[in-house]
Specification:
Number of strands: 2
Distance between the termini: 40 Å
Order of helices and strands: HHHEEHH
Helix content: over 70%
Number of helices: 5
Radius of gyration: 15 Å
């Protein structure tokens, strides 16, 4: 359940799922691309693994998850505050950063199917024609 090999596989899966979304953002020429999304997903998965397995009964994994959500929210806010000619830009990028953190948390918690479906949904939304969204 919490073997070292499984933990490593969770980190690798988080990297792959973050990369899938990050690759799309990079191809779209957005400021947060492949590396950023991988790092966020792996970081969230790592924090989840540490909170579940690293501290035994001394830790509340939900508190760690809440901290990740808030912390990544601040990161996303920094993306949104980037302005281009009076227009606020970066809302979708900030949303993908926040969602990738959630995917990383899910992978770290062992929710593989949920994280894979979430990744597919995010990619579907990102490639959806603008006139639909």
């Amino acid at each position: 359940m919490g073997t070292g090999a499984e933990m490593v596989l969770r980190l690798l899966l988080a990297a792959v799922l973050g990369a899938a979304i990050g690759y799309q953002r990079e191809r779209a020429g957005k400021q947060a691309g492949l590396r950023t999304h991988i790092l966020i997903s792996v970081g969230a998965a790592l924090f989840t693994l540490v909170s579940i397995f690293g501290f035994g009964d001394m830790s509340d994994p939900a508190r760690i998850a809440a901290g990740v959500v808030v912390g990544v929210g601040f990161l996303g806010a920094g993306v949104i505050l980037h302005r281009e000619g009076g227009i606020v830009a970066g809302l979708t990028t900030a949303a993908t950063i926040w969602t990738v953190a959630g995917i990383g948390l899910a992978v770290g918690a062992g929710l593989y199917l949920v994280s894979a479906v979430a990744t597919a949904l995010v990619l579907g939304v990102l490639v959806m024609p603008r006139w639909l969204g």
